[in-house]
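Field: sequence (string)
Field: structure_tokens (string)

Example rows 1 and 2, in order.
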Amino acid sequence: MAVEINITYEGGLHCTAIHGPSKQTLTTDAPVDNGGKGAAFSPTDLVATALGTCMETIMGLVAQRNNLNIDGLQIQVLKEMTADPVRRIGSLKTRLIFPRGKALSAADRAKLEAAAKACPVKQSLHPDVKTPVEFVYPE
């Protein structure tokens, strides 16, 4: 199924995108280190956001199918840019922090970890983009 997203350049390095099905909008701005004001997500910030939300969504699907509660799961994505050989995302380091009070068996952890690593956004990234993943479980 195709999804249409319409994007308008507003000037001053700002863009507005409209999600066809929902009509939701979001804006972007170039980052400060690339001539923008950093007033909104940059396009590469959205890639990092897509990775984290994709991981959580795919894990949510696995959790539903296995009657697991992962509500409160947090993902931190650290986006690092590189200029070699061109300006691009160099790495997207993700840290998944599971909430306290929601014990998961080793088998359930393995299912969730496999789901996170198999998310479509992660699979769509160029192999030169490093994507280390850390899973943090409560003690």
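Row 2 begins here:
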Amino acid sequence: MTVLPLEHSEKVLHTARKHWFIFVVEAFGIIILGFLPLALFLLPLEIQANLVYFLTSIWMLLLTVALARIWTDYYLDVWFVTNFRVLAIEQRGMFNRKISVFRFDQIQDVTIEIAGLIATLINFGTIRVQTASEDMFVMRGVAKPERLKERIMEEHHRVNVAPH
């Protein structure tokens, strides 16, 4: 992972990532597809064994790449709350990353949405931060969204109340 571009005397106060359940759900389909080639070995087909092994190897390689992409997206999507600002890093594929930065005095509104029974039980949801420039920063599937919102609002209040 890249080194965070922190300013002088800036400290990371909170790190927010996606909930582990998001990765499990996304990876579950890939893992199920990994068992698909077993059906070829169970069927009474008159196919060359070498061809079946070759195609199975190609299939497993493609699934491994897909799983690596899911893991990369899961692991590298992160928000850092510092004492000056919020850095939102969104991985959009293997070699595509978007880094957004917004200062606490730009924040207009912070909302969280926890939708569904599973999200409520294991505590994950979506957080949206609206800034003065009408930009909307969104992180879906974030673990413990209330804690992230509280931390952002604490720093927002500290910056806005502090004498300038």
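free_text_note (row 2): The first helix runs from residue 20 to 34.
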